[in-house]
Automatic annotation (TrEMBL):
InterPro entries: Arsenate_reductase-like, Thioredoxin-like_sf, Tscrpt_reg_Spx/MgsR. NCBIfam families: arsC_related, PRK01655.1. Signal peptide: none annotated. PROSITE patterns: ARSC, PROKAR_LIPOPROTEIN. This is Regulatory protein spx. It comes from Pilibacter termitis. Keywords: Disulfide bond, Redox-active center.
Amino acid sequence: MPLNKWGCLTDRKGVISMLTIYTASSSASCRKALAWLDEHKIPYRERNLTQESITLEELRGILMMTETGTNEIISKRCEAYKLLTTSLDDLSLNELYELIKTHPTLLRRPILLDEKRLQIGFNDDDIRRFIPRAIRRLEMIEARMKSGL
């Protein structure tokens, strides 16, 4: 994928392919993900959820990309979840949004997404899918050459 004049990845039509990462300042997983993106020179837009609430549109977009809905994005280990008296399945989207807006720690972090992919949490192997395919192919060729295959 080519870069535009601002250094962002673009598709053949020149559309910017920007990765968004939702983070929290206190999260070690978020720091690892940000360091990994920087190391691999992948442009991203960071949204620190402890400083700025997620919007209803952003939440809707994330949920649309999940396979299991709220089960995928909600942290069941956080204190706010343990104090819930109602099932998340019983909440409307607006009620869920208000709950997350009030308790941003309910969201698992980091959340990485672009137009086609979603990743919840940091996993060193899974995050590689955000590397452009052409670069992944080159890395695979280099690895095979080094291993003598």
